[in-house]
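Can't paste images in this forum, so I'm doing it all in text. The chain is below; anyone willing to post the predicted structure tokens underneath?
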Amino acid sequence: MSIFESKLLALNYFSSNRTCQIFLTITYAPEIVSSSNSTLIILQMLSTPCYSNLPLLLKRIKLAQQPTSISVSNPTFLSINSANNLLAVMSYMGSRTLFNRKNLSSVINITSVGSDCAIASQNDNLFISSCDNPYSVRIYNETINGLRLLYVLNITDNVRQVVFIENNTWLLIAFQYLNVIQMYSVDLKTNKFIYNQSISIPYNLACTLTKHNDTLIYICFWKTGVPVHILSFNGSLWIVSNLTVTRPSNMEIVSQVAFDSYDRLWAVVYGYGIRIYDTMGQTLLASWPISSAKLDALTILNTYEIFFGDYDNNKILHFAPVLECIL
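Text version of the structure:
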């Protein structure tokens, strides 16, 4: 029997004295650090990945802020391009700027994605901008050389964020001044968009939509003191409800949410920083005050490399922890 077929989880080899440390079981969240004195050989998936240890994870992330001189006017949306090497930043009523992901001071490309565009969305190789002049949703195909406009869907009001569901066959649209989410059936092969229904929501000023899956969409409003809401499908109807535990103070705004590799809900709180909840926002797991910034956007990768948009200070914050651990 080879060691790969045994019950060994890992070996830690010390070259100085040619000895090994053997791991048969791990009952805690391991902390794996880089060392030139030993070589760690992981033989099987660790049963308790280190990313489950949220206090340790946050400690590592906070210590991994990258120096950057990047300046972007009022960032409202951040995403990693489909090639996984560039950071795309959408500016409020501005352009889409591409930066080298590892060196944010290096501008790769600046692209106009319409006139008076407030925010954007990324869906695989599709980039979608939400514009006010005229009111429209502009859908682009992301290519090696930039963006290629596929279709313009004209709308009758100020569009904010949109999301595609069910393999890009349905489009959900949030509006700045309407208390509804509109749904369209979509055929991207023929550029056919057919209005289906409007779903009532309790407030106007919906600013972001975040897809957890095809039947669970998270809604944030640009209003102080308003919690995150969810739009869920019960098999026949779309239902809107609020996650009361996520309610911020009357001086704060929850502007966007995202999910990490453990399905934890990261809420960007304008006027505070970050609050982290379980998936359904029932339990506050951790808080991360960032008083020096006015955050409104983020993107978080499976490796916990994180980019934050600082709207008021026109900056991007970048954290790149080295977490040598099995996902």
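The chain has a mean pLDDT of 88. The longest helix spans residues 54-62.
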